[in-house]
Sequence to fold (363 residues):
Amino acid sequence: MWVAAVGKAAPAMALGAYEALGPAIRHSLVITRDAEALQELTAHTAAEVWLGAHPLPDERSLAAGARLLEWVEQLPPDALPLFLISGGASSLVEVPEEGATLADFLALTHLSFTCGMPIAELNARRAALSRIKGGRLAAHLHGRPARALFVSDVPQDDPRVIGSGVMGPAAGGDCVAREVVASVDHAVGAIATAAARFGLSVQAPRARFEGAAARLAARFAHELRLSSAQLCLWGGESTVELPAQPGRGGRNQHLALAAARLIAGHADLLLLSAGTDGSDGVTDDAGALVDGETCARLALAELDADRCLREADSGRALAASGDLLHTGPTGTNVGDVVIGLKLPLEAGRALARAHGGSLARVL
Fold:
C-alpha cells in the first residue's frame, strides 16, 4: 500500500490508515496545513510530510501539489494506492494549468469571499485552472486500481467537489473505488448522542443548511425560540458576501453575531456556531458562543452589532464581548455546526450539579 493523505484531516486519516494497515504501508505522503497536528504521526511513522496553505494558496501549495503529482506518476508497478482526502485540499495542493498562475487562484479565492460564492461553484472554477483538480489527478493513474476515502465538508458529499475534485472521477472513467467515510451528519449525530446522555431533549433536522449566514441566523434563532427541545442542532455551511474592505471574522462568527441580536434579552438562550476544523475564515478562532447578554456587552464596549455585520467585522465585536471560541486545530473538517441551547438558569445549574462541573464544562 502507498498512502497519500491530503487536507486538514490528513494527519488523523493517515494515523487511521497505519492503525488499520500497519506494515502493509510501504510509503505515505501527508499534506496538511497545521504542523502541530503532525506530532503524533511523525512520532510513530516515517511519513513524508509537506505543508500547504489555507484558505489562500501560496508557494507551499504549489510545491506540495507538484510533489503529489510526482508521487502519483512514480508509483511502483506493484503499489496499491490509497488516497485519503479531506476539506482544505483545494488550497493546500495545486498545480496550475498551462497559462495559469498562483495569482489566478488567489484572485478567484478573493472573489469567492466577496460574493458569497457557493463551494461547488468555487471548486468547479478552481478545477478549470488546475492540472490536478476536477478528476485530472486520477487520470494520471492511467487505469491503475486505487481506493479513495473522503472526509467531506461539502454539500451532497460529492467526491467531484471535495477538495475541488482532487480525487474526483477522471473524464472517461477510472478504476478508483471511492467512499465518503465521514461528514457533518456524523458530527451532528455525535453531538445529539452526547446531549442525550446529559438528559437533554434534542431537535436535529435532517437537511443540511446552506446560504447567507445572516438569513440562517434569523432562521436558527426563530427555531430555537419556538422549539420544545432543549438543544437544537444544525450542520452545513453558510456564506458571507464581504465588503470591499472587510474587517476580521469568518462565516461562523458572522452567523453568531447576527443571531446574538435576535436572542438579546433571552436569558435562557445560547447559540454556538463553529467550524469543525477549529478555524473560521482567515482567523484562528473556530467561531463563537453567544447568549442573551452579548449585545449588552457590545454596547458597554461601545460597539454596534449592525455596523460590525455590515463591515464584516464580527471577530472584533465578539472579541470585545468575550464570545469567541478558540479550540486550535481539531484534526478533522466536516463543515460547520450550529448548536442552540434553551435552558433556564436553574435547570442549567441542576444539570451541572448532576454531572459534577460548571454548565460550560458539561456542554
Observations:
- DSSP finds 15 helices and 13 strands in the chain.
- Residues 279 and 286 are 4 Å apart (CA to CA).
- The mean pLDDT is 92.
